[in-house]
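Example S7 (structure tokens).
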């Protein structure tokens, strides 16, 4: 496109970020018109900082021409906010990037069951294992995995999707040609070959710390749902989850040990009712499958430890029999022997809290949403969500699509 240089010029203006950039573009209609406007036109817009007005009066296109040359040399494509191929899902967020730099496959994100998997760089072995397992399971089931490409949870999610043979999209906090961390060069190449590398920063941009919180809105914006695997009390993972909540995306979190610093953030998301607790890919898929008919499929993936993986690759593993896929909304299966299928009401006093007993009794009459349970039991919403989470973990309650809960056990009244 002949006007690409004006898009690049506009994104390089000092102080023109976020909503301010969108406001300027909406006012003038196109980046060329912003470029050819004069000082009076900028003054009529109003509200611009002096630094921004001075930057807009700089009409040099040298930097834009350099960026275009770098993109051509590196095989990087550009997608602008006004292009037909620009994802509507991303265009609808509060601060859509005006330009996306793209290397690899181009995806129709609005049609993809895209799931972001995010987490801390300082991941535990448990977090790495869960990120890889969830990513592989989701990928095999038809989801498109989105993540960063940092060490820790991001890298585990990317490798899990690639290992499962699925595509993956990594959204970067710097230029596509700047490998960060440097020892991930092969991972960058694998993602570009099997999926795509995306950034709102031009080639050559160093991945500074401040870029990543800004980048996170794109990860959630491109996704239908976000899975937080491990996170401290503060950090980028919670930032991404916050963006997802603001953008009305589904949010999921993997629980961890109560005393593990790397699980404090994810556990809090679950505790506050801001994220659904997930332990396997199907827990995510059941929330999305109705929105993407024909794209997703539910099925049971056995957990594979590093030792089991080694045995399988060596041909010495004895795999458990595969179960039939479970349907959307179906309760997690119980073991044929020793599983909970019937619960005597008198045993509830020892096994469950007062809140849990009241909620389980309310669900004996049929499936209900959390707000219905609040009204029916008069238990505060926060306590309802906390109790329902524990009931799910214990296998007494299952969550269906549409955020409805139903009893997964039969109460035996005596």
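Recovered sequence:
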């Amino acid at each position: 496109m002949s006007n690409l240089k004006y898009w690049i010029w506009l994104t390089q203006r000092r102080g023109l970020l976020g909503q301010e950039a969108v406001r300027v573009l909406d006012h003038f209609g196109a980046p060329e018109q912003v470029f050819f406007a004069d000082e009076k036109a900028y003054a009529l817009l109003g509200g611009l900082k002096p630094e921004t007005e001075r930057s807009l009066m700089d009409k040099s296109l040298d930097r834009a021409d350099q960026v275009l040359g770098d993109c051509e040399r590196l095989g990087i494509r550009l997608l602008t906010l006004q292009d037909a191929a620009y994802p509507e899902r991303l265009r609808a967020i509060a601060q859509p990037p005006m330009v996306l730099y793209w290397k690899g496959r181009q995806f129709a994100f609005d049609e993809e069951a895209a799931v972001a998997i995010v987490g801390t760089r300082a991941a535990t072995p448990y977090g790495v294992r869960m990120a890889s397992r969830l990513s592989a399971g989701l990928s095999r089931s038809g989801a498109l995995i989105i993540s960063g490409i940092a060490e820790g949870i991001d890298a585990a999610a990317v490798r899990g999707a690639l290992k499962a043979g699925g595509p993956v999209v990594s959204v970067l906090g710097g230029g596509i040609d700047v490998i960060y961390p440097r020892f991930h060069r092969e991972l960058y190449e694998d993602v570009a070959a099997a999926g795509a590398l995306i950034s709102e920063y031009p080639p050559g941009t160093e991945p500074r710390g401040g870029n990543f919180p800004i980048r996170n809105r794109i990860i959630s914006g491109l996704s239908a749902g976000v899975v937080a695997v491990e996170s401290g009390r503060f950090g980028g993972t919670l930032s991404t989850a916050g963006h997802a909540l603001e953008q009305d995306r589904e949010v999921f979190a993997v629980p961890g040990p109560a005393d593990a610093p790397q699980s404090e953030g994810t556990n809090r998301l679950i505790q506050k009712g801001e994220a659904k607790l997930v332990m396997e890919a199907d827990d995510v898929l059941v929330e999305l499958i109705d929105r993407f008919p024909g794209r997703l499929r539910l099925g049971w993936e056995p957990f594979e430890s590093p030792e089991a993986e080694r045995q399988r690759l060596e041909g010495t593993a004895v795999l458990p029999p595969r179960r039939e896929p479970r349907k959307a909304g179906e309760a997690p299966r119980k073991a044929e022997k020793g599983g909970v299928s019937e619960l005597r009401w008198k045993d509830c006093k020892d096994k469950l809290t007062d809140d849990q007993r009241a909620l389980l009794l309310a669900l004996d009459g049929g499936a209900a949403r959390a707000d219905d349970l609040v009204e029916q039991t008069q238990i505060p919403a926060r306590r309802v969500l906390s109790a329902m989470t524990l009931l799910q973990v214990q296998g007494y309650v299952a969550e269906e699509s549409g955020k409805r809960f139903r009893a997964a056990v039969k109460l035996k009244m005596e």
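Notes on this example. Residues 1-68 form a domain with the DNA polymerase; domain 1 fold (CATH 1.10.150).
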